[in-house]
Amino acid sequence: SVFTRQQLATHIHLRPPADHSSCIFRPVMESEGAFYASVCRPRSWYNLKRSDEIGAKAVDAQFKCYSARLQEILEAYPDSALSFLAKAPSDTLSPRQVTQSKVQRYLAGSDAQCAMTVLPTASAIASHLVRVLPYVQHDVKHHRLLCFFGYLSNVSELADRVHGVSAYGHEDTGAATTSLILGLYQQIHGVKEEKLFLSELQGRYAFFLYDGIHKQALAARDPSGEQELYYCLNRDTGMVSFTNSLDDLPPGEDLSQWLEVPPGHYVSGRTPELRQFALTPQQLELRERHESTDIGYGLYPSSDSGDASTSSYLRAGISWDS
Question: Reading across the β-sheet that carries 12-13, which strands appear in turn?
Fold first, then answer.
């Protein structure tokens, strides 16, 4: 296959083995991997319950589930891209491939208030080009942790804004994407200007970001809703958990406590709250219909007209200009 310079620059390039036939990979699974993260309240907020210990135990249990799941995948798909990474000598792989192609456990924050574990997958672009998913970056210096699913369509524009360069010819897609998101977050002071920060991200994505400086998390899902995202708030301990896959949670997990982050919404704050930052395609279509018929923004559609999900957003008080 023939690749452009940009395509080669935006994916991880493996050194091909002597037997090129082994580079013909089979897909592992349709998803882009899975993650589970827990964020506890700052220590100054604790009562007698140690939510950090509870969160760490939950992540440990999830880590074991992910490890068992990964082993099942490797045995079931010995010719997959992920199996190739598992068998390849470490000196033929990039540092990110060596670490992130295995189930990982991360601790972030000065008091380890955030714990996260990730079940990876890998997709073969073609020949010996392999991409490890999801994209993870742990900025130890600034106590930030990011797990990203999907893609950004405005990487070049963000690179020019954040770093003053128009392209990332020396990095793979994952490193470039996570670096730009964290750089933009720092520039805009995302904890105070979350909607402004999220408005700069164009693409189809869901991500979890923990800010250890401000001791809180931000989890967002783009308006298309292509990537899944869920959260669970324990009001007794104040701990909040996030995942993108309810199917991979430990046995016995009470799924009724988990809530979906709707498309175009995000969860943030020390006392986590769900907010909307962008209109969904359905809401945009309804808005255009309202404008074309000169109805105006102040009228809500009746319950027996229009799209049911869109009407529910409107009845909830979502402003068109929010």
Answer: 12-13, 129-133, 121-126
Burial bucket for residue 301 (CB in 10 Å: 0-12, 13-18, 19+): middle
Q: Which residue has the tokens 């045995």?
A: 75
For residue 23, pLDDT over 50 is answered with: no
DSSP track, 65-99:
HHHHHHHHHHHH-TTBHHHHHHHS-GGGS-HHHHH
8-state DSSP, 108: E
pLDDT score of 212 more than 50: yes
List, in sequence order, the alpha helices (H) in 38-193: 51-76, 81-87, 95-100, 155-163, 173-188
Whether the predicted model's global pTM rises above the 0.85 cut: no
Q: Using one digit for the tens of pLDDT, what is the confidence trace for 186-211?
A: 998 766 789 999 999 999 999 999 99
Cα–Cα distance, 280 to 262 (Å, whole number): 9
Q: Which of 2-11, 152-161, 262-271 has the lowest mean pLDDT?
A: 2-11
Task: Please identify which residue in the block is written with the tokens 């189809």.
Answer: 204
pLDDT score recorded for residue 166? 59
Helix or strand holding residue 314 (H, E) = helix 308-315
| Cα 65 to Cα 231: distance, rounded to the nearest angstrom | 19
Taking the C-alpha atoms of 309, 312, 313 and 317 in order, what is their torsion angle to the nearest 10 degrees? 170
- Is residue 3 within 8 A of residue 129, CB to CB? The reply is yes
- Tokens 């295995």, residue located: 102
CA nearest neighbour of 187 among 160, 168, 215 = 160
Quote the CA–CA distance of 89 and 84 in Å, as a whole number.
Answer: 10
Distances (CA, A) of 228 to 28, 114, 221, 265: 19, 21, 7, 12
Question: Who wins on pLDDT, 12 or 166?
Answer: 166
What are the beta bridge partners of residue 122? 132
Starting at the edge strand that comes first in sequence, how are the strands of the sheet with 135-139 ordered? 135-139, 144-152, 203-211, 216-221, 265-268, 273-276
Which residue type is seen at 309?
Answer: S
